[in-house]
Amino acid sequence: MIINGEKIELKELKFMDYIKEKNLKMEFIALELNGEVISRDKFETLLLKENDKAEIVSFVGGG
């Protein structure tokens, strides 16, 4: 699988495990998986698979 351009050599990965490992805050991210935006309510059960391509975008506030 590829996440944000980084190749990860796993057959499967729970999306929430990845989020926790990277210390990302769920309320400030969006996910595009294989060209489709994924609803936040699916994050808890989402399983990334070997051939998936994911882009995670973090929102940052400022002024």
UniProtKB/TrEMBL annotation:
Pfam family, one: ThiS
InterPro entries in UniProt: Beta-grasp_dom_sf (IPR012675), Mopterin_synth/thiamin_S_b (IPR016155), Thi_S (IPR010035), ThiS/MoaD-like (IPR003749)
Gene3D superfamilies documented for this protein: 3.10.20.30
Protein name: Thiamin biosynthesis protein
Taxonomic source organism: Campylobacter avium LMG 24591
